[in-house]
Write a structure and sequence with these properties.
seven-stranded mixed beta sheet; four-stranded antiparallel beta sheet; binds adenosine-5'-triphosphate; 11 helices; binds magnesium ion; disordered N terminus; alpha/beta
Length: about 325
């Protein structure tokens, strides 16, 4: 039997498994900065990223996408759960992430704002080869040779070598960030809204570049984004988060063609995509997500859900379903 793709499978030595992961940020108030509560940024997320697979992760602002990505990259400690490659634990609750140099090489992250991510005092040559030099991976190549090769991979010529970040356009800067991440031949790259800040035409170029690099290097992406149309195009599977939780997970096409969660349907209605719901099915989502510091009881989506009834206000629905399309909704079967 094929294991459910969302369940961490210790037998799969090559998969990155996120098992029941929660990340919380303490809320401090008063003169003594006492902890008064916590923002539940990520709650009980379980996901498995197979080698070479792209998972698209969507959801409204503040739902926890970046926090989950940062936890995967080892940049956030876990309040609960475990992140592992096969049997090898990388992060677990109660300890700072334990990443060896080799672990850090295998998982890279590319951020939304390339200007903030790049040291303004370094040239493109130094920026793209910094990691290689740090990890002792330059081999017989000089830094200039390695940089020329890496910049060429992302479509930048030799003239880029000695320029500083401020001399590039936004799209070129993001290419440098991608070259930096790819230089270490990672197995997983967390791409956090890498194209959102760019012009539409440049967005497409950056997305195409990531697709090409994946084909060339068999890298696996956790692709965080808002645009479900773009995510569908690049992802094998897609997940939607709401208030820190994954509420739907499934194959990219099924996700857009047959969304099961009322929230996914509302997201698809808000951003029309080819093949998405039309006409009467296009209902616009009202209201704001509740506070992640004070989540409502029961299903977190119930205060905004047109289908909510008693059970939804009382009990948290589990992420469940047949085979590979999973949904956390008591009313998934009754949905229009
Ligand atoms: N460093 C932090 N300290 C306290 N709270 C934080 C911190 N970072 C994020 N949060 C909170 O955690 C929750 C999840 O934030 P996160 O940035 O992961 O969301 P997101 O889905 O990436 O949103 P966006 O689409 O706007 O990038 C939000 O409520 C946010 O306010
Ligand atoms: Mg974010």
């Amino acid at each position: 039997m094929v294991p459910a793709p969302h369940s961490p499978a210790p037998a799969d030595a090559d998969a990155l498994s996120i098992g029941h992961v929660s990340v919380r940020y303490p809320i401090r108030r008063g003169v003594f900065a006492r902890v008064r509560g916590a923002v539940h940024a990520v709650e009980d997320v379980t996901l498995r990223l197979a080698p070479g697979e792209t998972i698209g992760l969507a959801g409204e602002s503040g739902c926890g996408k970046t926090t989950l990505g940062r936890a995967v990259a080892g940049l956030e400690p876990l309040a609960a759960g475990r992140i592992a490659i096969g049997d090898r634990t990388l992060s677990e609750a109660g300890r700072p992430p334990r990443r060896t140099r080799a672990d850090r090489r295998r998982i890279q992250m590319v951020f939304q704002d390339p200007l903030a991510a790049l040291n303004p005092r370094l040239t493109a040559c130094d920026l793209v080869t910094e990691g290689l030099a740090e990890h002792g991976l330059l081999g017989a190549e000089t830094r200039e040779e390695a940089a020329t090769r890496l910049l060429a991979e992302v479509g930048l010529g030799k003239d880029a070598l000695w320029k500083y970040p401020f001399e590039f356009s936004g799209g070129q800067r993001q290419r440098i960030c991608i070259a930096r991440a790819m230089a270490l031949r990672p197995d997983w790259v967390v791409c956090d809204e890498v194209a959102s800040a760019l012009d539409v035409s440049v967005q497409a170029q950056v997305i195409n570049l990531l697709t090409d690099l994946k084909a060339r290097h068999r890298v696996s992406y956790l692709m965080i984004g808002h645009d479900l149309g773009v995510l569908r195009h690049v992802s094998d599977r897609m997940a939607v988060m709401y208030l820190g939780r994954i509420v739907e997970l499934g194959p990219a096409d099924a996700f857009v063609d047959r969304p099961l969660h009322p929230y996914t349907r509302a997201l698809l209605a808000a951003v029309p995509v080819p093949g998405g719901p039309r006409g009467a099915a296009r209902k616009v989502l009202r209201g704001e997500p509740p506070s992640a510091a004070n989540p409502p009881p029961g299903c977190p989506f119930h205060p905004r859900c047109p289908l909510a009834r008693g059970e939804c206000r009382r009990a948290m629905p589990a992420l469940a379903g047949d085979a590979d399309h999973l949904v956390a909704c008591h009313r998934a079967g009754d949905a229009p």
